[in-house]
Design brief:
- By secondary structure, this protein is an alpha+beta fold.
- Among the domains are: 79 residues, Histone H3 K4-specific methyltransferase SET7/9 N-terminal domain (Single Sheet), CATH 2.20.110.10; 63 residues, Histone H3 K4-specific methyltransferase SET7/9 N-terminal domain (Single Sheet).
- The chain is built from six helices and 15 strands.
- A 15-stranded antiparallel β-sheet has the order 1-2-3-4-5-6-7-8-9-10-11-12-13-14-15.
- Strand 7 and strand 8 form a beta hairpin.
- The longest helix has 10 residues.
- The chain is elongated and about 65 Å long.
- The N terminus and C terminus are likely disordered.
- Pfam families: MORN.
- One of its GO terms (cellular component) is cytosol.
- This is MORN repeat-containing protein.
- InterPro entries: MORN (IPR003409).
- It comes from Noctiluca scintillans (Sea sparkle).
């Protein structure tokens, strides 16, 4: 029978294992590719998996607080010489991680409180934010959504202290794909994004309710597209000559790193 740790790592790699290590492994195996893989490896005898996991879990050893070579302090469970199970890591810089571990790295559900006051609650994989999670930043921003390999990736919602809000897609920490950005004064942009800026087709609405739909390039509306829309009877903004720069304001060009 395949090694259970190896099986879990495979499930994580195929995208089905963004669940707490061991405790919810059976749930992981109940879906899609992970289930098929596990059944093949276990000769269709998946019913024995809970007992096997329970036996392995009993091998976790609670040890006293230990100082690690890098100066951080770990308190929690071990599996042989690796941190595995539930544990707390206190780093020298003041940051604290509390949650599940696998093979000496945070994997599964956990909470990371950074030294600057930022807090992440959610899923980890091999020490990185991965899966679904929420992040509150030291500058007042907050994010709820998907992560991949430590970066904002997928669907998410970002809120700013001034009331601005983005709901849409991210790629490698940048707004990319389709999304809506709303300002507290009523303005909004709905459409395509690339590398953090409106890029492609989108619609901008100003505070007075006037709209302009057309093509955007790196955060600025395409003037040629504006004239084309006017000729075709489309809507163009009649009172907001600064629309081309409105969507590149500080509210949109934020630094999204934590």
């Amino acid at each position: 029978m395949a090694n259970l740790l190896e099986m879990f790592a495979t499930c994580k790699r195929d995208g089905s294992g963004q669940l707490p290590f061991l405790h919810q492994f059976v749930m992981c195996c109940s879906s899609g590719t992970a289930q098929d893989w596990c059944r093949r490896q276990m000769n269709d005898d998946l019913d024995t998996l809970p007992a096997q996991l329970h036996a392995m879990e009993k091998r976790f050893e609670d040890r006293p607080k230990q100082e690690l070579p890098d100066g951080s302090v770990y308190t929690g469970q071990w599996l042989d010489h690796q941190r595995s199970g539930q544990g707390i890591l206190e780093r020298e810089d003041g940051s604290i991680y509390e949650g599940l571990w696998s093979m000496d790295e945070p994997s599964g559900q956990g909470r990371l409180c950074s030294a600057d006051g930022a807090v992440y609650d959610g899923s980890f994989l091999q020490g990185m934010r991965h899966g679904n999670g929420s992040q509150s930043y030291s500058d007042g921003r907050s994010y709820l959504g998907q992560w991949a390999h430590g970066a904002l990736n997928g669907e998410g919602q970002m809120h700013w202290p001034d009331g601005s809000h983005y709901d849409g897609q991210y790629r490698e920490d940048d707004k990319s794909g389709f999304g809506k950005f709303s300002w507290p004064d009523g303005r909004n942009y709905v459409g395509e994004w690339k590398e953090g800026k409106p890029h492609g087709h989108g619609t901008y609405t100003n505070a007075q309710g006037d709209t302009w739909s057309g093509d955007w390039h790196k955060g600025r509306r395409n003037d040629q597209s504006t004239r084309r829309k006017a000729r075709e009877g489309g809507h163009s903004e009649r009172s907001d000559d600064n629309a081309s720069t409105a969507v590149t304001s500080k509210a949109i060009d934020e630094d999204q790193d934590d």
